[in-house]
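Input sequence (163 aa), recorded before submission:
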Amino acid sequence: MKKTLIAISLLFIITLTACSGASYSDTAKPSDIADKILTETGISKTTLETPDAAATDIILQGVAKEKIDSTCILKSAESTNVNEIGVIKAATEKDTADIKKALDTYLADRLVGGELYKDYLPEEFPKFENGKAEVKGKYVVYTILDSKATPKAVEAFTASIKK
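Predicted structure, token format:
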């Protein structure tokens, strides 16, 4: 009896542990997620623009088109601000690894290029250092924002897709 009770208790604990992992929806549109990020960070959409296809190809360089379901990339329209937000929905969860790798490379390149801002606009340079890419479910988000907006953006991203 005691062994049975222990076995049932262990099974119950294992079941609870397995169920505690986060579960993410895959129905949200990247543009809706980006809008939520903008709202939560207080960044005005009027200061951002959608880059053309060539710029998007540079951001996602090396990622096969069939691995991408949809995207919403917003970059600052002003040369005095470097805010950038991107939400990419992968075709499958497996494809997020390639997308994240491309975004990590892009963020590293932006950091190197951002060195020019140290003299030009020194208050903008830390945004490049805060550059971040994160995967949740079939989505990858990246941000180039200040240290206050970055965690708010990640929270808004997570809230947008959490089941």
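Checked by second reader. Residues 55 and 73 are 10 Å apart (CA to CA).
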